[in-house]
Amino acid sequence: MQSNTKALLTCFLMLATAFAGCLESETASDDEDVLRIISYDAFGISDEMLSQFTNETGIKIELTRAGDAGGVLATALQTQDSGLYDMVLGIDNSYLGAALSAELFQPLDVNRSGLSERALASYDGDFAIPFDVGSVCLNYDATHVDGENVTVPSSLWDFTDENWTGKVAVQNPRTSSPGRSFAIAVATMLGEEHDDWWSAMNANDVIVSDGWTEAYEVHYSAGYGVWNDGFIGDAKAVVSYCHSPGVEAYYGENWTTSVALDLPGASFSQIEYAALLSGSKQGASADAFVEWLISEDINSQMPTLNFMYPAIEGGDLPEDAGYRWHSVVPTDAVVMPETIDAKIADWLDAWDAAMA
Amino acid sequence: MLSLKGISKSFDGPVLVDFDLEVAAGEIVALLGPSGSGKTTILRIVAGLESPDEGEVIFAGKDITSLAPEARGIGMVFQRLALFPHLDVAGNLRFGLADPSDEHRIEEMLDLVGLAGFGSRRIETLSGGEAQRVALARSLIAQPRMLLLDEPLSSLDADLKEHLADEVRRILKSLDIPAIHVTHDPVIADRLADRIVRLDTAKE
Amino acid sequence: MRVRAVFVMAWTVAVLAPLALAWQQLDGVAERSIFDTLASFEDRFQTSGALEFTFRVAILSTLLTLAIGVPLAWNLGRHRWPQHALLRSLFTTPFVMPTILVAMGFLALLDPWPWFRQDGALLALLLAHAWFNLALVIRFCEPLLATLDPSLEEAARLLPKGRTRWGRMRHLWAPLFAPSIAAAGAMTFLFSFTSFALVRWLTPGQRNLEIVMANQAEWAGIAIPELGRAPSEIIMAAAMVQLLTILASLGLISWLQARRNLMHLPRVEDAREPPTTVAGLHVIVMAILVLSPLVALLISSFQIRGEWDTAGWSAAFEGARTGIGVPRAMWSSLVYAGLTLCIAVPCGYILADVIHGLEKDRPRLAMAVDVMAMLPLAVSAVIIGLGVLIGLIRTEPELARSWWIPAYGHILLTTPFVVRILLPAMREIDPDLDAAAALLGAGPLRRLLRVRLPLLRGALIVAASFVLAISLGEFGASWVVVKYTDWTTLPIMIDELLGRPGFDPVPRAAAHAAGVVLLGLTMVLFMAVERFRPTGSGGEF
Superfamily assignment of A31-133+269-310 in CATH? Predict the structure, then answer.
């Protein structure tokens, strides 16, 4: 009998604690100055920094991580006009067209004059403010490219020959943001032939993963994945960012065998935006947050927080440990959000069919 | 037929000390005694399910003391009957058939124990007396050279007990199978057996 | 009686409402029929090979699990081992381990043999599944083995068909245990069929139906046709295949368990024999194998870039990268687990009681309620999460932020286990006891508290341990929903740490460290509670 009473008591205690927690978050939601943001998982700004923001401005931030850029957009679409969220972080220029067509956003009142040309290249307006940039391109392992049998590829079609059989890793464009960016670049660069190229890559045993992590960590031979359990290392080239070799060097004491492929047109300049959702009443707080985000102080830290280039004019990667030296700023494919929005469904369907 | 010589066995203390027994061919012997007197142990030693600490078991002229129970040709009806629940009555009896072509013997044996037509009955639908008889039939169909009965009638009511005791005796005699019957009930012991051996605690 | 009927209705609504809402949303965006979508599965990258792979993995996993598990259950149940209760719970613990951690553990374990990452990846997956589902075979078979009346075997030995070991195996043991083994096999099939984390990490190039659905989930139901059409169609098709297959398995399990109960197996308190050397070696080897992934995970949490380093542990506890540290996440996990326990066990009890009450007079209805009780296990976590979301957002957006929403998923997923555990125990209670108590003047509540619950003590304890352990490690349904709240549980924290690009090696080590904490917590809770279970009870799960 005694153990039964104890069990009941424990149950009560747990329920009580849980209810106490309920009260805690009730008061939080009654607070006026709360900014609710849908962000992508890898967003690198720590809670410490966000607390600093709160201390300075009195605005509390509630960050919900919703997957990758696609997940952010999907969540925003699912909750459109419900007032559940105020802002989005991380919708990139490959999704921006769809977001604008769906009339997801309200204009922000933020001074854009300090932003770089590169950051404003895809979209220069009030509905979305860029906060970081990066080019998605192929990286390759320099130990595989020995200059004699295997030369540095000078065309995408080089990857379809026997030197690269089963040695290239790409990501599924429907489930991965870099994968999507790369597919867009390929479609823009190769035009009508792009599905032929994909078919040829499929015939050449290209490795396709659902996410960047799997392609880079598990398959890529020149990445940090070599230290991880479960490493395979069968890919000598992978779709990642053109500054990924720099990040490798930064954490690897200025040493890496990974090189970014500087092939004009075979890369996509991915720009990530912050935007205010229509239906939100927190316009003023949102403005304050975005201004904080693109301030010199915070934005110049993007390379180490988010592994992306800053969006502000004059912002660059740090020189420490070869971060800047190993990174490449390529000549990207030029394609506007409206074009992407119009053609992406066909491009993705063509990819699906070519890779089946 | 069967000779037990100098059997001793202890578990947490002596259960059997220097026990002797003789069973002649065709004879039915009852072992009578209170619980704890070691009667079930004697049966289990004869069957080979336990080994004696000391002593010999001679069966049909051969020393079978260390022979496995499977090889002894001795059958046993257990106190809890141990009917196989996943088989029906016929299936249980079939377990006792070495040769599949002897199927007809199942019906014969059921007739013999008075359960004609019970072949497809499920075990859990049998009454106490019926289950007894199925257990008996199952052991007999295997044509044992000797049958051991471990208080098989103890859970039945008085009328049935006596009736079945007579039945069992009749069947055993008609098949000319010697048997040892363990019980604590002197009346039943008397009805079933030719000879009664009394066991007091740990002695003979 | 009316109250109970209402309760079953409420449960059905709680389970079906999210599904119905999700289905409605998906249907609004999809254009092609399920049949057409399935027919074109092989034409699209997103789905090609998924059906074949899913079934292949499920079937092979079941076979391997039974092949490994049945001999182990045999040896475990036949002999009296020192620390028998501990051993038993050791072998059952894998089942309640969070799958993401199992994946990490196996990766760490198999790291020295790169073959397992390429040609041997499928075998690695099958082994992981066998490791995981071993518990089911043990659960279903061992208690019976330990308490089956030894007279059955002795009787068999003295009869012609049972004279040889092989004869006994074929004519006695196999038929007696076939229903239990089949039920364990069916449940293994079910869990292998819906495996997610293990497939994702151990066989990275391959997709099963669950992964296909998870991949498409992001865009499912979105009203913008270019974005939402194909994903919605794919999810509907995949979900339908999954649902039908699992319902069939659940029906089979329910039928097998009921059939097993028609056989009145004679039981004794303790039928175990003294241990033998060979059996002992087998058990020891298996125990080491079962512990090895967990040990591998522990070791890897202390390694950063190949060097011994405790930075992972300090980062995990300080919460430098995730905002909250292990202690707070652990506390949240425990609170949710406790809350789930308080609700899932009574829910499961009522459902089991209803089923048991219906069994004699209306067996078909009983089976229907049984399947309904198990339904949450049949449905992809993705669908449950999606439905909860859509339903809440449409009607009451603020509700989506409630702290108890993740518990909804936990409760849905743990209650079926409670039912599966309590039902066989209820069947074994002698109905005369209840009648006797009633005749002595005890009212329903008193009978419940003084007669039924004490008799069900063993099964209730087992159920409680399962609910706690599963809730602690639960990932699938929660992650869709917990994003909308401030509360983080340990598994979510681990997922976040693993989700970032790993250029900086510390978060990964921190994830491993948090994983070890979660594993340790789960093991301790589970095994501590398990020790109170008497030898043969809780026997059919």
Answer: Periplasmic binding protein-like II (3.40.190.10)
